[in-house]
Write the structure tokens for this entry.
Amino acid sequence: MVVCRYLNDHPNLFISLMKVLGDSVAVSIARTRGVRVLWLCHNVDRETETYWPGITAWRRGLWSRAAETILVPDPALMSPAIGAFLGHRDKLRPITVGPLPTPTLDPEEQARLAQVKAFLNAPSDGGRKPLRLLVAGTPGRKYLHFSLLPRLCDALEHSGWAPRVVVAGQFDNRGRVIRGEDYRKFLAWCRDHDNIHLETSYLPLDERELADSIDLIWRSIADWSFAFTLFNAALARIPILTYEAGFLGSFVPQQGLGATIAWDFSNVDEAVRDALHADPQNFERFLTERSWERGGALIVAALSEQEPHVLETAVGGELQG
């Protein structure tokens, strides 16, 4: 079986064209040998990295035609998936995923985590309502929580809150273009504010260890894709504050896992208060309904007639035995 996963693009046109060639070869081999094709579609409406939209659209069209089944990573994504794959809606099947393994920290990372906790638990200046936020993840154009953070902090301060924020991401190249986004101004803004603690290199975080030090997780993604932040927040019982965009913008309030800020930030105070009062039972229900075991059973059901030989294909169509 050929298994297609991510179809991320590349800034280099030649490399992107080689991905097209690899995809074409993989699909051709599958067709001539009668090998079944499965698309595990993590990103329903678009790819995380798209530098050549025409190439990306062609690759997605190729795999959607070739696949006998297109797996959607959460039942809540089925509606947007139907909109994205109108001509292949009969191929769509929902699955679930589960929490990622608990990260392990080396002594240097443990020391950095201790600094994070000390920053979050420092005494408040008083006068304003303290609000401790975690903003973490992989930088990139689709991840709105970094680029929108300055605007969020301004809106919070105007609403009487005193935000204290931990920003953690892999900005190792000093913020120059990362996955299509330039973060130099953002990093400069972070360094200019005493209420921001900035971690610019990878720091494995277990939100459960920060549960007593974090009030809300600020997370927003522009596209319709599943975010493992949902599991991290649910396990730690930390509500999510998100923005009116993409999957999280609708899913978080629907599931009672937090609240969504309007596109113009006009409801910041209301959204923060709603998120802070999220019912802990909602986190438990979310976790109960999703697991790797359930996802595996759904995949097996979709592949009930799976052939014994499995041939996987990586992102760019590179074949692996």
Summary: The CA atoms of residues 180 and 273 lie 34 Å apart.
